[in-house]
Amino acid sequence: MTRILFLFVLALSSLYSFGQVQPSVSIAPASQSVCTGLTAYFTATAVGNNTISYNWQYWTGTAYSDLANTTIYSGVKTFQLSIKPTATGTSYYRCRIRDGSSTIDYYSGFSTLTIVSPPSTAPTTTNGYACSSPSSVLLSASGATGTQTYQWYFGGKPINGATAADYVTPALSANTTYYVTIDN
């Protein structure tokens, strides 16, 4: 029993020298949804002792396969994969990671990319104007068909609870830009 344990430890030490840190994924790619024609980005970063190499992979339905840079994919050997989809559907991606000259592969978790068609009717918004300052403004979005999910944004960040077609701003005293996304 002692002999087997010793051989096991020896085998592990030959795979990764004592004192080295195995690469670990510090940022895993997040799942997302985008409309056809827009670009999706997946990011995975890892830390280790040596230069980290990345290789993005796509689920074929039976196994993961390495991607190549094409008109749809770019950055397939970097920490950030860009995907410009041309058709609707759901696909799965992950990143294969290596630390330096190691032959051991590590993998990020898989991420889901859902591609949807843009709304058949372009959404419109009603610009709000206030004649006196400070004043609240009613903003409205419309024009999408089907069941919609709205999200209003200010300063590039979603406004908590602002998920209806209409949004009343807080009192404004200067020109301010808001925008809305509509998913259906």
What characteristic shape results from the CA principal axes? elongated
Number of helices: 1
Task: Outline the biggest β-sheet.
Answer: 6 strands, mixed
Uncertain segments: 1-19
Q: Supply Rg.
A: 24 Å
Q: In percent terms, what proportion of residues is strand?
A: 35-45%
Task: State the secondary-structure class.
Answer: mainly beta
End-to-end span in angstroms?
62 Å
Taking all residues together, what is the mean pLDDT? 77
Number of strands: 17
Succession of helices and strands: HEEEEEEEEEEEEEEEEE
Share of helical residues: under 10%
Brief overview:
Helices cover 8% and strands 41% of the residues. It has 1 helix and 17 strands. Strands 2, 5, 6, 9, 10 and 11 form a 6-stranded mixed beta sheet that branches.
What's the layout of helices and strands?
Elements: H1 2-15, E1 24-27, E2 32-35, E3 40-43, E4 45-47, E5 52-59, E6 64-66, E7 73-74, E8 80-83, E9 89-99, E10 106-107, E11 111-116, E12 124-126, E13 138-142, E14 149-154, E15 157-158, E16 166-168, E17 178-183
Parallel strand pairs: 2-11
Antiparallel strand pairs: 1-4, 3-8, 5-6, 5-9, 7-8, 9-10, 9-11, 12-13, 13-16, 14-15, 14-17
